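Entry type: protein chain
Record version: 2
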Amino acid sequence: MFHIVKKRKIFYIISLAIIILGLGSLLTRGLNLGIDFTGGNIVELKFNKAVTLEEVRTALADYKLEDSRLQSGGDNTFLIRTRVLSQAESQEAIEGISEKLGGATLLRNELVGPVIGKELTKQAILALVIAAVLMILYITWRFEFLQAIAAIGGLMHDVMIMVGMASLLQIEIDSTFVAAVLTIIGYSINDTIVIFDRIRENLRINRKEELGELVNKSLWQTMARSINTVLTVLFVLLALFFFGGNTISNFVTLLIIGIASGAYSSIFISGPGWYDLRRIQKERKRAAKAAA
């Protein structure tokens, strides 16, 4: 049986390499911020005849708006989120698209300011901090403080990988990004708790067993459950990615990255990380005792 704890440095290095790659992308390319963060126009059009998303996107390309987000509202109605447009630009684009696609009625043309993005960012950070504090308190109560630190370390690992990959793949960041991050935090901590629960059970059964061996045994005892859970979730997400349409593709892509990262961190980062924290704590106590 492959010894995960003994080979833990390999997994630490893999994670570190991916995080550094993402940080490099963040520093050089930045994030592809969407309308929620940068501001822009929200245009709603009701076409006189049936048109497809591709036809609307092709028409938008004539005005260099092909990167706009499109959402079908049914009954030939489309919601178009563009970059910030001047009055003249939006009028020219709307009239041109309407003429090209057989006529359309303008239902809405609103300019959304970037102040929404600042508010979203503040609320998201606040939500993350509150969630982290509550999880530390809960895990400390159920298990121990060092396991809470290891679990939060795993979650931060997942968030950094999601943000880094979003920059690397230039996935548009909008309000759904916040939802994706919070979803992954909830999913990842659930998997970690299962592993810690098994470690606690094994500790009760055999306290004399060497800690590294016990952690490794616990990881393998929960491995099948972790993999099966991840695969079933990934199957659903892949189906949504291929058949869910362009509107939710960014959200689903972020979830796929986060689910894969969460499963990896639960098995290869949080469990071995707690072992290292315990080892360091034990060495410090031994050194303090020797010094005394």
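Comment: Residues 40-112 form a domain with the Alpha-Beta Plaits fold (CATH 3.30.70.3400).
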